[in-house]
Every structure is written in structure tokens, then in C-alpha cells.
Write a structure and sequence with these properties.
Helices cover 43% and strands 14% of the residues. The protein contains 18 helices and 15 strands. The strands form three sheets. The chain has a seven-stranded mixed β-sheet, with helices on both faces. The termini are far apart.
């Protein structure tokens, strides 16, 4: 039994695209909160809904644990939760109603709740935590469990209803020294289904970590309702301590560093590489970075030495006009240069692309496709511009938005404002780009293998066969795109 039950709202059954991809990661932020509560002497348990098949599994936890407080604590280190998908919002509402039926106080922490306080309070939520949550949650839990009289006015970083009005307490100062945080409460998470899912689908088990909180850059479409415009980092020593603990007790074969920006602080990557190698803590990993941080050969060499296998970058567009409109602070030339440098040293490159930003034309799209072909990234993630409250981008298109303000799931791809082209165009463009990408990849792999015939194997032949299918289905998509842009068949 525990006095506080932590859960979250992201379930694979509500996101068919991610269910097919089968790359699930435990709710890292939720486990950090559990660890902090436990360190503060508050009995806590975790119900992870990731693999739940229906709502009855959450209710079983309520019946077995008899918590006084239920905290729906979404993992802010996972971009899927930061997208504020409407299916996950409905799941949070359902869990809130269920928890209230069991007599629990309900607390929510999420980007979506921060942006839509009234809707959450209308669904029986008692408190919403604003900003960084661990200290606020601990103070609130202590307040509730000790049966203090009065309201929670003295606890910073809260929103609640009082007298029919929504009240907010003063903002909570965020952690500046992240090493004070205990490691996530991995022992409270059942990692068996994660391990099985990864092994069955990909052959090796990947786990998530973070080394930082926040992002100091100013991309005008990026929402930052939790940490704001700040960036704080754990020390390399602290990160390596956790990696050694994971190697000993969990044995992941791969790490996803889910930071918005990995290794931004000067000399951090070198120190990290030195430590993981000397302490035998190397675990192959992928991370996220910016192209303007990847232009020094020394940085790339240190990443490789530390175990980096893949770096994802927000390339976004091959058009400098669009990058400037986004206030991205990077150049197309830097995308080319960083990609070449990573490839030179055997590190795979992932591109995030974003179609549909206001002002994007057919020519801008063609420049993006050209960039993908010429830079030859190893992986590709494609989205369309997604307005989230609190961003300058949202403010600029808000008047053009209709009733729908959030995607249903991560495959929705609805452009929810008046774009250059209709909504269906971007869904077709998404498929077209992926097919082109697979064809380019297979062609390059085949040409390399012809120079080294020993590399020809079943996997390569399967890849080539799939690319032939893509080549056969591509013209029809090109014709559909051409009807929207008023050009000859779209045959880039």
C-alpha cells in the first residue's frame, strides 16, 4: 500500500503509429517524481499505463494500493507527451474521474494541463502543478496527507479552484543544480514488458535517460511551459554514476538521451567521454543536438568515443527562408556540414523535418527534398507545423485555427491553421517523402555493395525489393501532389 499513486496518461493503445513502431520508453519524469517523494519519506507507488489494455488495470491499482492521492504525472522528457494529444487528454480525464470515485485527491502535472486548466478542473482534478514539479508535489502531498486546514496558497507552483475561480500561486524556482536529484525510481517500474517489446521488435533493449532540463534556444514553434527559456545540466560524473547503476541492475543495450539538447555546455562532451571510457560505463546511445553545435571535429570524435551511434537534429527545412521564419538560428549550410562530419566518423544522422510552416511554397519543399537526398540521413522523422499555446507561432496563426487545437494521436498530421496547401496535401507529402527517402537509401546501399559484393545479403535484397514497391507507388502520389500545386507531375 502507498499513500501516493503516480501514473501518467500516455498509453500505446491510444497511439497506433507508435504501437506499430514499438519503441516504448518508461515514463522517466514520473519515476523522477516517485524517487523525490520517496526520498522525502512519502510512501509511493507507480502505475505505468504504457501497456494497459483497458482502464480496469488502473482501477485495480487503486483497489490494491488504496492511495489518498493520485498524481497523473506526464513524462515531460518524451516529445510524445509534449504534443498534448487529445486521446491522452481524454485518458487523463478518465483516470481523474476514476480516482475521485475512489475518494482520492487528484493532482495533474503536464504541459496540456498547464495550457488548459479549466478543462482539467472541469474533470474533477483538484490541483495542477505549474513549472518544475518535484518540490511542489512533495510540499503538496505533505500538506494533504498531514490534514492541514486551509488552502494550499503558500505552496508555489500550483493552480486550483477556490470559490469557483481558478487561482495560481507564485511560480516555483526551478532546480539549477540537477545533481541534487536522486536517480529515477527504476525499481518501481516493471521493465519486463519494455525489454520484451524491444527485443522482439528490434533485437536489443533501449532505455531512456536525461542529462539536462530545458533549452535556451528560441525556435518560435517550440512550447516550453514547464522549464521556460533555461538550460541546466547534470555533471558528467553524475550521469556516469547512473549509467554504471543501470549497467549493473538493468543491463540496457542502448540508451536514448532524451534531452532537448545534449552536451551544450563547453567541454561537457569531452569530460563525459573521458569518464565513460575510464570507468567502463560505455553504453551505445542516441541523442538530440543542433547542427551548429556539431561543426567541430573534436566534438564528433568525443561523441563517438563516448558511445554515440546516432545524433538526431532538427533540420526542419532545406529552405533558409523557412529556417529564418522559424527563428531557428541555424543555416542550411550547417545542416550539410554537420551531416558530413557525423557520417565521416561513423555516426548515424537522423533528421526531423517540418512541413507546412506559414509561407512555405513548392520551391521550399523541393529544397527540403534536395537536402534529404544530398545529405543522406540514416533516419527521418516528418511532421507538419503544430501550433502549441505559449509560442509566437501559435499567436501568429491562432486567428486561422478552427475548433480542433490538438492532434488526436501522433499520426494525425492535421495542419490546424490555414496553410499554403490543404490538409490532405501534407499527408500525401509525408508519404511521398518517406518513399523517396527509402528509394534513395536503397539505391545508395546497392551501389556500395556492388563495389563490395561480399556485402550483398538478404537484408539488402529485401531493402531493394521494398524500394521497388515504393518506386511503383510513387508516381500516383506525385500526380496527387501536382493537382494541389498546379504543376507538372511532382517528380522530384
Amino acid at each position: 500500500m502507498s499513500r501516493v499513486l503516480l501514473t501518467h496518461s500516455y498509453s500505446l493503445r491510444f497511439d497506433p503509429k507508435e504501437h506499430r513502431a514499438m519503441t516504448p520508453y518508461p515514463p522517466l519524469g514520473t519515476l523522477y517524481a516517485a524517487s523525490w517523494l520517496r526520498q522525502s519519506g512519502i510512501p509511493v507507488s507507480v502505475h505505468d499505463v504504457m501497456f494497459d489494455q483497458d482502464e480496469s488495470m488502473f482501477e485495480q491499482s487503486l483497489c490494491s494500493q488504496h492511495p489518498e492521492i493520485v498524481v497523473i504525472y506526464d513524462d515531460q522528457f518524451n516529445y510524445l507527451t509534449k504534443m498534448c494529444l487529445s486521446r491522452m487528454r481524454e485518458a487523463a480525464f478518465s483516470m481523474s474521474r476514476c480516482a475521485k470515485a475512489h475518494g482520492c485527491t487528484v493532482v495533474v502535472f503536464s504541459s496540456d494541463a498547464t495550457d488548459h486548466l479549466a478543462e482539467y478542473f472541469d474533470h474533477m482534478v483538484d490541483f495542477v502543478i505549474l513549472g518544475e514539479a518535484e518540490i511542489t508535489l512533495t510540499e503538496l502531498a505533505s500538506h494533504i496527507l498531514s490534514r492541514h486546514d486551509g488552502t494550499a496558497d503558500t505552496i508555489h507552483g500550483l493552480a486550483f479552484k477556490s470559490g469557483g475561480e481558478i487561482r495560481r500561486t507564485p511560480p516555483r524556482r526551478i532546480f539549477s543544480t540537477l545533481d541534487v536529484l536522486p536517480f529515477p525510481a527504476w525499481d518501481l517500474a516493471d521493465l519486463t514488458p519494455y525489454r520484451l517489446a524491444w527485443k522482439r521488435s528490434h533485437g536489443s533493449f533501449s532505455l531512456n535517460m536525461v542529462t539536462t532540463r530545458g533549452c535556451p534556444y528560441h525556435c518560435n514553434w517550440c512550447a516550453k511551459p514547464i522549464y521556460g527559456q533555461v538550460y541546466h545540466s547534470r555533471s558528467p560524473e553524475n550521469v556516469v554514476d547512473e549509467m554504471l547503476m543501470l549497467k549493473q541492475h538493468v543491463a540496457p543495450e542502448h540508451i536514448w538521451f532524451a534531452d532537448d539538447i545534449f552536451g551544450l555546455k563547453p567541454d561537457w562532451v569531452r569530460r563525459f567521454a573521458d569518464l565513460v571510457t575510464t570507468r567502463d560505463a560505455v553504453i551505445p546511445f542516441k541523442c538530440l543536438s543542433r547542427v551548429d553545435l556539431l561543426l567541430k571535429e573534436d566534438t564528433i570524435l568525443h561523441l563517438r568515443r563516448a558511445g554515440c551511434r546516432t545524433v538526431w537534429v532538427g533540420a526542419e527545412s532545406g529552405s533558409q527562408k523557412i529556417l529564418d521564419a522559424m527563428e531557428k538560428g541555424t543555416t542550411v549550410a550547417q545542416i550539410y556540414e554537420a551531416s558530413a562530419l557525423l557520417h565521416k566518423h561513423g555516426i548515424s544522422v537522423g533528421f526531423f523535418l517540418q512541413y507546412g510552416y506559414p509561407g512555405e511554397t513548392f520551391d521550399d519543399i523541393a529544397q527540403t527534398l534536395r537536402m534529404v537526398r544530398e545529405c543522406a540521413p540514416d533516419e527521418l522523422g516528418i511532421s507538419v507545423s503544430y501550433p502549441l499555446p505559449g509560442t509566437r507561432f501559435y499567436d501568429s496563426v491562432r486567428a486561422e485555427m478552427e475548433a480542433k487545437r490538438n492532434w488526436v494521436d501522433s499520426a494525425d498530421l492535421d495542419i490546424m491553421f490555414r496553410g499554403t496547401y490543404p490538409r490532405e496535401f501534407y499527408r500525401i507529402l509525408h508519404a511521398y517523402t518517406h518513399k523517396k527517402f527509402r528509394i534513395w537509401q536503397a539505391t545508395a546501399a546497392l551501389l556500395r555493395s556492388l563495389r563490395r559484393p561480399a556485402q550483398i545479403n538478404g537484408a539488402l535484397l529485401d531493402r531493394v525489393a521494398r524500394s521497388l514497391y515504393h518506386a511503383l507507388t510513387l508516381p500516383a502520389l506525385g500526380m496527387r501532389l501536382a493537382r494541389y500545386v498546379g504543376t507538372e507531375p511532382f517528380t522530384f
